[in-house]
Amino acid sequence: MILSGEEIRSRIGNQIVVEPFEESKLNPNSCNLSLHDELLVYEEVVLDVRQPNRYRRLEIPAEGMVLQPGCLYLGRTSEWTETRGLVPMIEGRSSLGRLGLFVHVTTGFGDAGFCGYWTLEMYTVQPIRIYPGIDICQIMYHEVRGDIEEYCSKYQNSRDIQPSMMYRELGCVENDQQLELDFESLVREAIS
Ligand SMILES: Nc1ccn([C@H]2C[C@H](O)[C@@H](COP(=O)(O)OP(=O)(O)OP(=O)(O)O)O2)c(=O)n1
């Protein structure tokens, strides 16, 4: 069963945390979440599920940024969410779907107990200009039958855009969590 907007509101501060929460973002059975102002783009010709992959961090300026087809942009919600005893899910918004923008790659499904910013896996059918702060997706909540063992795995308490940590399951021991590419110093080195 999916919670109504009214029910979401009544559970805020109890089973549901959406921070910051704005009542105006409630829908009949979901709550809109907005886009933070940063994106990560992988800097690998071939991504490797067994290794941390290098990426670049981009800031979405107030005047917007054009996303190009064929590229995966990891973003995150501005809202921190916590969900207890319910299964949270994020989905796209029809208004953005009608412009050909996807906000996740088959992974809208969350876990009961998940706390953190949601990482968005954005890609687009056509070039599209996006802006920081736009309502990018919606979160909804399912009631669960049966006991719940709440989520406490690798994406718990995500405080940033979180690239894939699949490599952890596959035995890669890494010191650095992810390899952020310092593109500006590389360019400086290359031209000096
Ligand atoms: N687009 C998404 C989808 C999920 N999540 C968060 C909420 C989920 O509770 C958590 C874990 O999602 P999955 O269970 O789908 O992830 P994995 O199975 O890959 O990882 P784990 O082994 O940690 O469960 O990640 C997210 O931030 N952004």
Automatic annotation (TrEMBL):
Record gene name: dcd
CDD domains with a match to the protein in the record: trimeric_dUTPase
Gene source species: Rosistilla carotiformis
PANTHER family given in the database record: DCTP DEAMINASE
Active site: E121
Keywords of this entry: Hydrolase, Nucleotide metabolism, Nucleotide-binding
Reaction catalyzed: dCTP + 2 H2O = dUMP + NH4(+) + diphosphate
Subunit structure: Homotrimer.
Gene Ontology BP annotations: dUMP biosynthetic process; dUTP biosynthetic process; nucleobase-containing small molecule interconversion
Protein name: dCTP deaminase, dUMP-forming
Protein role: Bifunctional enzyme that catalyzes both the deamination of dCTP to dUTP and the hydrolysis of dUTP to dUMP without releasing the toxic dUTP intermediate.
Family in the record: Belongs to the dCTP deaminase family.
EC number assigned by the record: 3.5.4.30
